[in-house]
Amino acid sequence: MDPVSRRLLSQQLICPQFSTPKEVVGWMGAMQAQDTKGMRWAVAMRTKKPSLSAFKKAFDSGEIVRFHLMRGTWQLVSAEDYWQMVGLCSPKAVAVTRGWMAGNGISIPDEELFRIREMLCRIVGDKRSATKEDIVRGLAERGISMDDHRLSYHIRMSEFDGVLCSGDLLPVKASYSLSTDKLSERKSFDRDEALMHLTLKYFRHAQPATLEDFAWWSGLSMGDCRRGIGLLGDRLHTEKWHGREFYLMDDARTRGFRKGRCILLPPFDEYLISYKSRDIVLPQEHSHRAHNNRGIFWPVVLADGRAAGNWSSTKDKITVVPFCGDDCINPEAIDTEISRYLDYLKR
After folding, report:
1. Which of 70, 140, 154, 308 shows a CA-CA span of 20 to 30 A to 84?
2. CA atoms of 341 and 38, how far apart (whole Å)
3. 256 domain residue, yes or no
4. Domain ends where: 164, 182, 200?
5. Is the peptide bond before 322 cis (omega within 30 degrees of 0)?
6. Distances (CA, A) of 310 to 23, 36, 276
7. pLDDT greater at residue 254 or residue 24
8. What is residue 31's predicted lDDT score, i.e. its pLDDT?
């Protein structure tokens, strides 16, 4: 088994199968979306013809939405998966967030939570797409003032409950819409069906991956993760690699890897975030070049699927800094990838 080539194929980073952002996000299940600039490239680069305008169209129309979900962080999910994801993942996310609040000395009684949520619904509903500044003004008009940290928790709890999701795509700031305005009405779901659905989407995009990887990515308990794997039955099989047991889909792609390819990976990309153990593509001695101990990830250059350098961008220039030797990044290959990125910005 070559886990690098299989992951590149499964993650749609080489030989992508899809043409639209909606298809990509639906395939991935959920995509980390802390970095608003990086998330656009993370989705677009997995399409056959990367386009910034295509991403914006899908985002503004509600085909894909951004909100806090797994691990208490920002995620992109497809409209079709939204209600199942909220129902399955929110209880754990709420518990984690309440723990953070307690650690920061913040307590929000249920009476306050529901009262502010009703105000948020009115403010955001009236604007259709509201920024945090809009919300602050709307609350002030109703005689409510609170610090930014407390307000952030109120907004996050509303996202967990399926009340708020992303509004229109703005250059930098987040915006919010009512989920029922952006998406279909709230749908009921069967928990086992949702768990099986999430498990399928994870291993489909992250394979080969371990049980521990799945638990890290989903934020679910080990018991839930084992149950999800069991629900998939014989659609999954295991293979051993360097003493570790990996799960793969029986219909996993194995053809398409081409040596010499370079990829500009955005910060917080699923190619790294999807796994608890990243040593297959990110050697331990270089891990500090990809992320710090506080969970902040930086843009990384992949050479043949392995982290080989960092990159940064200005309006019309890409700067690449290798960290594994000057000859580890093929000049022609990286020039081709830079051209692909600059073309994406124009489309």
Report:
1. 154
2. 12
3. no
4. 182
5. no
6. 28, 18, 21
7. 24
8. 98
Q: 99: burial class by Cβ within 10 Å (0-12, 13-18, 19+)?
A: exposed
**Gap between the Cα atoms of 315 and 185, Å rounded:** 40
Percentage of the chain beyond pLDDT 90 is 90
For residue 189, count CB atoms less than 10 angstroms from its CB and return exposed for 0-12, middle for 13-18, buried for 19 or more.
middle
Question: What distance in Å separates the CA atoms of residue 30 and residue 75, rounded to the nearest whole number?
Answer: 6
Counts of helices then strands in the chain (DSSP H, E): 15, 12
Least Cα distance to 272 among 338, 213, 199, 340 occurs for: 213
pLDDT above 80: residue 245:
yes
274 inside domain: yes
Distance CA 30, CA 174 (A): 18
CB 204 within 8 A of CB 250: no
Q: What is the 3-state secondary structure (H, E, C) of 19-44?
A: CCHHHHHHHHCCEECCCHHHHHHHHH
> Do 301 and 161 fall within a single domain?
no
- What's the number of domains the chain is made of? 2
71 within domain boundaries: yes
Query: Binning pLDDT at 50, 70 and 90, where does residue 327 land?
Result: confident
**Alpha helix locations (H) across the chain?**
3-10, 21-28, 36-44, 52-61, 82-103, 110-127, 132-141, 148-160, 179-182, 191-206, 211-218, 222-232, 270-273, 287-290, 331-346
Write down the mean pLDDT value for the chain: 94
Domain that holds residue 175: 26-46+55-182
Asked whether 7 and 46 are in contact (CB, 8 A), the reply is: no
Using CA atoms, how far residue 137 sits from 76, 109, 119, in Å, is 27, 23, 12
Please list the residues that pair with 313 across neighbouring strands.
Answer: 318
Strand order of the β-sheet with 300-303 is 262-265, 300-303, 306-313, 318-322
C-alpha–C-alpha distance, residues 329 and 16, integer Å: 22
Distance from the first to the final alpha carbon of the chain: 37
pLDDT of residue 256: 80
